[in-house]
Each structure stands twice: as structure tokens, then as C-alpha cells.
UniProtKB/TrEMBL annotation:
This is Type II secretion system protein GspF domain-containing protein. InterPro entries: T2SS_GspF_dom, T2SS_GspF_sf. It comes from Symbiobacterium thermophilum. It is a multi-pass membrane protein. One of its GO terms (cellular component) is plasma membrane.
Length: 299
């Protein structure tokens, strides 16, 4: 009976979150339509009352990671994890319920941010060669659009996919600077800002864009070499973080192997499960703090 009630609660929560996502989407479309219908002079003085919400930020980070996920997907994932955690809690498995809830809430965010960092790192590694390729095309007499098309034909992913969007935007008569700005917003790479500014200045005031792109490429290579040297200097701190995090897990594994009943009471007692879950959370928090301290990009 309790299982049936929990299942009904889970379905109700899932339906509610799905309806909430649809209502938010309809309200967003209605607000955009009302703003378009207002007088242009009034629109210039319109000030948004608040910034993007946490669902909008998650959706933007998903795009930076190359994932086509919307707010509805996040709401359904959070609702599913909450419903499963409720089922486990009603069944008496508090440790499993807490782990499921923690994994459902933090797991997607960590996965998205990890993929975004990996994608941004690959994009940053490919950027100097891409700029040199564009500079060579422009020096040979080609236009900026032809340089973008050359990148689409020769560059690997993820550079190719982002420049394909730029090429489509330029075909729709979008200015080159604005089209390249889409890459900066999607990838979240601050180093690409100088490329956007250079293309905007070259389009408005003219100039040797090929030389500017070559100069930016050389500076990016030098910055990358300096960053790698700093990461090598911080390798000891990262190794310490891994060691400190692994020692408790190794000790627990060895003790459990020598005496399987040693942690039996802690696993069966509800308070012991809560303490174990809190210990795991504290270890994860300490590992994240050490990683943040040893990350040279945050200095």
C-alpha cells in the first residue's frame, strides 16, 4: 500500500513538473510577443527586473557542453530523482534515498560542467591553428566568409560545428562580429573575445585582419604554454587531493575485507547510514575545495 501511494505521488510530481515547464515556456513566449508588440521607444527604456533563473543557467551550460537539453528535461530529471528517493525512503532505505537525491540533483550539473570544460579545452587548443588558417585565407585574397567556410571544411570538431553555425548566420546577412559572438556565448571561452572584437573593428573601420588574427594566435600559444607550466607546478597539490580522498576509501575497503562485520552495525542503523552519507559528502566537498585551490584558471 505504501509503495502504491509513493508511486502515485511520484507520478503526480512528474506531471506537475511537466505542466510547470510547459507553463513557463508559454509565459516566456507570451512575454516575448508582448515586448515585440510594444512601442520601440518604450522598449529602449525597458529594464528587466531580474537576471536568468537557475533553469535558464542550466540550459545555457548545457549548450556550452554541446548538449541539446531544455528546462523541461531538467525538471523531469529532478522530479524522477525526487520520486525515486521518496520510494526508497518509504521502503526504509534512507542511505539509498539520500544518495539518489544527491545524485539526481548534483550529478547532472557536474556532468554538464565537466563536458563543458572538456569541450572548451578542446576548442581552446584548436583555436590558434584555426586563426592561422583564417589569416592565410584572407592574405591570399579571400573574404572573411571564405575563411569561415575553409574552417568548416578542414577543422575538426568542436571547431567545425561552431563555425558551421557562424557560416549559416553570415548567409542570413548577420554581421561577422555578431555571428562570431555566438561562439563565445555557446562555448563560454573568454579568449575568443579578442577575435570577435578584431572582426568587428575590421568590418567597421577596416584594417589588416590577417595580421591581427596572426597576432592573436601567437598570444594564445604563449598563454597556453604559460598555463601548462603553471599546471605542472600545481600537479603536487592535485596529487595530494587524490591521495587524501583515496586514503579513507582504501582503509574502509581493507577493513571490510579483513572483517566483513566491522561496519555491519553502521550500515544497518539509520544514524550510521546518515553519518556515512555525511562523511562521503564531506570528502567530496574537501576534494572540490582542493581542486578549486589548485586550479590556476581561478587565480
Amino acid at each position: 500500500m505504501q509503495f502504491l501511494a509513493a508511486l502515485c505521488t511520484f507520478l503526480a510530481v512528474a506531471l506537475f513538473l511537466g505542466g510547470l515547464a510547459g507553463a513557463l515556456r508559454r509565459r516566456s513566449r507570451l512575454a516575448e510577443r508582448l515586448l515585440r508588440e510594444r512601442d520601440p521607444l518604450e522598449q529602449e527604456g525597458t529594464v528587466l527586473p531580474r537576471g536568468p533563473g537557475w533553469l535558464e543557467r542550466l540550459e545555457r551550460e548545457a549548450k556550452q557542453a554541446g548538449l541539446n537539453l531544455s528546462r523541461r528535461h531538467f525538471l523531469l530529471a529532478f522530479g524522477a530523482s525526487g520520486g525515486l528517493a521518496a520510494l526508497l525512503a518509504l521502503a526504509g532505505d534512507l542511505l539509498g534515498a539520500g544518495a539518489c537525491l544527491l545524485l539526481g540533483l548534483i550529478g547532472p550539473l557536474l556532468l554538464i560542467r565537466h563536458r563543458a570544460r572538456v569541450r572548451a579545452a578542446r576548442f581552446a587548443e584548436q583555436l590558434p591553428e584555426t586563426l592561422m588558417l583564417m589569416a592565410s585565407v584572407i592574405r591570399a585574397g579571400g573574404t572573411l566568409y571564405q575563411a569561415v567556410q575553409t574552417v568548416v571544411q578542414q577543422a575538426p570538431q568542436p571547431m567545425r560545428g561552431e563555425f558551421e553555425r557562424v557560416a549559416r548566420a553570415m548567409q542570413l546577412q548577420v554581421p561577422a562580429g555578431d555571428a562570431l559572438g555566438l561562439i563565445r556565448d555557446r562555448v563560454g571561452l573568454g579568449e575568443f573575445t579578442s577575435v570577435v572584437v578584431a572582426c568587428k573593428v575590421a568590418g567597421e573601420a577596416g584594417g589588416d585582419l590577417d595580421r591581427v588574427l596572426e597576432s592573436i594566435s601567437r598570444e594564445l600559444v604563449e598563454d597556453r604554454q604559460f598555463l601548462r607550466a603553471m599546471e605542472a607546478a600545481c600537479a603536487e597539490g592535485k596529487a595530494s587531493a587524490r591521495l587524501v580522498t583515496a586514503v579513507p576509501l582504501v582503509v574502509v575497503a581493507l577493513v571490510s575485507y579483513q572483517n566483513p562485520a566491522y561496519f555491519g552495525e553502521a550500515l544497518t542503523d539509520p544514524l550510521g547510514r546518515v553519518l556515512l552519507l555525511g562523511s562521503l559528502c564531506a570528502m567530496a566537498l574537501g576534494w572540490l575545495l582542493i581542486r578549486q585551490i589548485t586550479d590556476v584558471r581561478t587565480w
